[in-house]
User: Fold this.
Amino acid sequence: MLDNLQPQNGLKELKINGYKGTIFPDWLGNCSYQNMTSVSLKSCKNCCMLPSLGQLPSLKSLSIEGLDQLRSIDEEFYKNEGDHHSSHIAPFPSLETLVFHNMACWEVWHVSESETFPQLRELEIRNCPMLKEEMLNQVFFRIVSSLSDVSKVRKLHIGDDLDEHTEAMYLDGDSLSVTGCESVRESALKAMKSMNHLSCLQEIDISGCSSHVSFPGNCFPKSLQKLKLCKCSKLEFPEQQQHKYDLVELKIEESCDSLTSLSLDVFPNLKNLKIIKCRNLESVSMTEAPHAALQRLIIHGCDKLVSLAGEGLAAPNLTHLQVTWCSKLEALSRDMNSLLPSLQSLHIYGCSDMWRLAEGDLPPNLKELHVGISEQQMRDLSWMPNFHALTHLTISGYYCDNLKSYPEVGSLPHLPSLTTLQIIRFKNLETLECNELLRLTSLQQLYIYNCSKLENMEGEKLPPSLLLLELRRCEISEQVASTEVAEYGRRKASFFCYYFKFNTVLCPANATRRRVAAKFFLKGHREIDNCYGRGSTFFLGSTIKMCIRQLLWQLQLGEHV
Assistant:
């Protein structure tokens, strides 16, 4: 019946759904349909052969879904040998979107040797489990290599997809993206190596390619400015001796296992460098100081790193430096005070062999500091300069197993601008020295995380400027948790069983009315959500029995109208 329903030549869009025949009529791919731009074949479950659609000159979108009996796509898909005009037309000259979905038996896809799909912008293959990997590789290699606009590509992304049953290629303007199984990604990489005409390529993002591959000519494209490599363990990092590159951003994550040393000298324009879990990296070097372009440097989880810029990292415009979980690194660069005059944020923690930060070496204009090194230096922070600009300080106790009370009296430097303090991961900390915190006259937020044995609060005062106190995963013992507070104003050695005198602890002297958002879990799971205090007095009620089970306790003050 479908054979007798041949439409007029002016047809623009054709959809066939649920056709029961085994082959499609000959008229379907006739090149006389000059205006046909879209074809959709869906749920034609008995069809074992595709029509010859490659000769439709205006076809832009082709969707094929649910052809359960189709096993092979052959030359007939591209040319109709019975059509005398077909041999003069390149296959699919205008096709931009090609989609295959739910093809249960499809195994073989022969791509024409001639230039096929020159205008293709989107290729998607989803849930075609029998399609041979070798076929996929050939298809993606040929299609990517033959794209007519490939020379205009500025952004290239090769990676895996959230849907493991989907292989896809998208060309959107100047961006080319290839996603899918590892073999497809490798085919795209090989196609990229054969493209010597990628003169406009500025950004490359490659992830999930574990096979041994390298860049063309063992060097980066000259136009490249941004490079991101993730989980490409055998990817060869380009030659660093004979070339200099114009990269401004470089990220290497769990990649380039052969890389043992990275020279900043070959990247004179580099602004952002991020190196994460580069397993064999031993050094990041610099001999042509200073590096005027570098603004952000992050190195994380490089277990073999022993040297960071040798005697000194001279980067006058560096604003953020993070070196974390590099177990063999013993020290940061010397003379940071003079070599890093613009540094505003410094994160240094998780480096078990780092036993010191030299006194006076840290830039005095730091605004953010996250530090967690040896117990000796964490016990006494007097080695820090008086950071007049520091607003955020995080102190990590990763290697402070012997500290039970913190911070020790007189250990904090003068920090007049500090508004936020975090104390985290002191696993044996039992007592917080609140009297020492009174020196932080601008402190507004205090966070205490992962201090599982924290029970005591030494001193009855916190800074009067404090607006927020937050504790996470600071559980107290069952004995303290079940203690009955039998007297008004009685203080037990616990944050949770502690009666605050708000006129001296949290409320400024001129406060007339404040709303306190305090959440306590009481026995029987009753909850005090909103408590009100007036003037200089405040109380939660009469005798209460604490039953603390929450991981978060947050106390926050704000104006109440």
In short: Residues 476-561 have pLDDT under 50 and may be disordered. The longest strand covers residues 513-521. The first helix runs from residue 133 to 146. The helical segments are 133-146, 182-193, 336-339, 375-379, 434-437, 478-481.
